């Protein structure tokens, strides 16, 4: 430990001691150091505490020099999907294994297979990289739950689409439970960074039911790999921001300046300029680099929460999601909000809605997503690059109030990433006067509506 670092540590410890006893100080300061040093601590999501992606390997048969395995990737995250261009799975072989063949997926490289004189393996790489097949491949190359270009739905949105699978035939490997060596160092891109995978662990063999449901069969061997997501590993900046407005206050609270970082400030497109209409502007790049519309927040996604109307027993909110990325369409998007009154949602008008209850005693979180074939596709930046809905909520007269920013959400997530909210002191607060003139309310509503259409 260097001299400067020692001074800082001692200073922090001294600050702690001003408020706690010596033993309490040792425990608290030690805990803080542990949390800072723990690399995967940020992977825990309090709104989805059990969310993960589990990769299961089922050995279904032995071969002359190895085994055939069915690999199933299950997305147990409630609101985080794997979007286009899909997942990429990698690992390292424990010995000198090769992949003889694959069904439902393929490796990105074959590697050096020059030592094989007869049949040539599908892949001889020590660290193979596997991707899903595209839709429409020949039937003999398909496997159950394959061939969706690597797109996997969130469990809470579409359980039937939250699974991806393929079959792999492995050679130069063990031919029994005692001689098989588990692959190591699993990596998962979904499609970008953010996932950290643990080691493979042998678990009780998977049991299958035959098609007539009268007989059970069992995998010869099964191991699992668990991957968790951390937004901090995915990007140093948020990928979305939130703005607020209300009928009872003329203040429109925009997204914070440079909310998603301003590294793209010199490579953005001014709205309605000639550049925004040029041919090929919406063509994605291989590295998925965004091309953003020039805004003060420089975020690909902005969520606007507008408190629209107040009734005797209900109140109404308008939610608008705007895409500022010219190169990205968001398919099967999700929006999660945490608000105490989401326990009394009466009607959602043009989104699908599902309450999320990560803790049984608290029902304050809900997931919004697009209706299939209607607005489940959020188009790229431009006139069509937004989706909107309204929500009707029933008041709890014992606790309901518009004061102190109560009408606005505590947390907002888009596609599983937490959005940056404005500072609380900038929220549109309820005026001191209890009565607001109807003309003023109308002007505020019009102003908020105009704000939804501009930056």
Question: What does this entry look like structurally?
Answer:
It is a single chain. The protein is mainly β and 455 residues long. The protein has two domains: 53-233, Immunoglobulin-like; 237-453, Sandwich (Immunoglobulin-like), CATH 2.60.40.290. It is built from four helices and 26 strands. It has helices at 3-17, 22-37, 231-234, 438-453, and strands at 53-62, 67-75, 88-92, 98-103, 105-107, 129-132, 163-171, 184-189, 195-197, 201-203, 207-209, 216-218, 221-229, 240-246, 249-253, 301-310, 314-323, 330-331, 334-338, 345-348, 352-356, 365-369, 377-378, 386-394, 411-414, 417-418. The strands form six sheets. Strands 1, 2, 4, 7, 9, 10 and 13 form a seven-stranded antiparallel sheet that branches. It has a six-stranded mixed sheet with strand order 15-14-16-17-24-20, covered by helices on one side. Strands 21-22-19-25-26 form a five-stranded antiparallel sheet, with no helix packed on it. A hairpin with a 4-residue loop joins strand 1 and strand 2 (67-75). The model is unreliable at 1-41 and 433-443 (pLDDT under 50). Belongs to the COBRA family. It is found in: Cell membrane. This is COBRA-like protein. Keywords: Glycoprotein, GPI-anchor, Lipoprotein, Membrane, Signal. It is a lipid-anchor; GPI-anchor.
The gist of it:
By secondary structure, this protein is mainly beta. The chain has 4 helices and 26 strands.
């Amino acid at each position: 430990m260097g001299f400067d670092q020692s001074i800082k540590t001692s200073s922090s410890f001294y600050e702690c001691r001003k408020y706690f006893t010596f033993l309490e100080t040792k425990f608290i300061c030690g805990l803080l150091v542990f949390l800072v040093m723990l690399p995967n601590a940020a992977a825990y999501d309090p709104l989805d505490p059990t969310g993960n992606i589990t990769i299961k390997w089922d050995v279904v048969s032995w071969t002359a020099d190895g085994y055939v395995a069915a690999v199933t990737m299950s997305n147990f995250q409630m609101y985080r999907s794997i979007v286009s261009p899909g997942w990429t799975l990698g690992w390292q072989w424990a010995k000198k294994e090769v992949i003889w063949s694959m069904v439902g997926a393929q490796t990105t490289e074959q590697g050096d297979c020059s030592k094989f004189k007869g049949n040539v393996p599908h892949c001889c790489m020590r660290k193979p990289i596997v991707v899903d097949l595209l839709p429409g491949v020949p039937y003999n190359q398909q496997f159950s739950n394959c061939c969706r270009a690597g797109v996997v739905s969130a469990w809470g949105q579409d359980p039937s689409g939250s699974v991806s699978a393929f079959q792999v035939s492995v050679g130069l490997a063990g031919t029994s439970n005692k001689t098989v060596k588990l692959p190591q160092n699993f990596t998962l891109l979904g499609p970008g960074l953010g996932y950290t995978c643990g080691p493979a662990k042998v678990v009780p063999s998977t049991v299958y039911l035959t098609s007539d449901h009268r007989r059970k069969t069992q995998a010869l061997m099964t191991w699992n790999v668990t991957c968790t997501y951390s937004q901090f590993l995915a990007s140093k900046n948020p990928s979305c921001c939130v703005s607020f407005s209300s009928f009872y206050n003329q203040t429109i609270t925009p997204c914070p300046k440079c909310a998603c970082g301003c590294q793209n400030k010199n490579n953005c497109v001014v709205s309605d300029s000639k550049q925004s209409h040029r041919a090929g502007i919406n063509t994605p790049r291989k590295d998925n680099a965004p091309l953003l519309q020039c805004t003060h927040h420089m975020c690909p996604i902005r969520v606007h929460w507008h408190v629209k109307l107040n009734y005797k027993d209900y109140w109404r909110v308008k939610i608008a999601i705007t895409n500022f990325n010219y190169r990205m369409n968001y398919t099967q998007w999700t929006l999660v909000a945490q608000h105490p009154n989401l326990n009394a949602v009466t009607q959602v008008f043009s989104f699908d809605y599902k309450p999320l209850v990560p803790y049984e005693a608290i029902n304050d979180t809900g997931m919004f997503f697009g209706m299939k074939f209607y607005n489940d596709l959020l188009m790229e930046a431009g006139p069509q690059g937004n989706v909107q809905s309204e929500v009707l909520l029933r008041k709890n007269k014992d606790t309901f109030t518009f004061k102190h920013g109560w009408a606005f959400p505590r947390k907002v997530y888009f596609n599983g990433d937490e959005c940056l909210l404005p500072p609380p002191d900038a929220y549109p607060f309820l005026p001191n006067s209890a009565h607001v003139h109807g003309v003023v309310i109308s002007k505020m509503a019009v102003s908020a509506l105009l704000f939804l259409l501009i930056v």
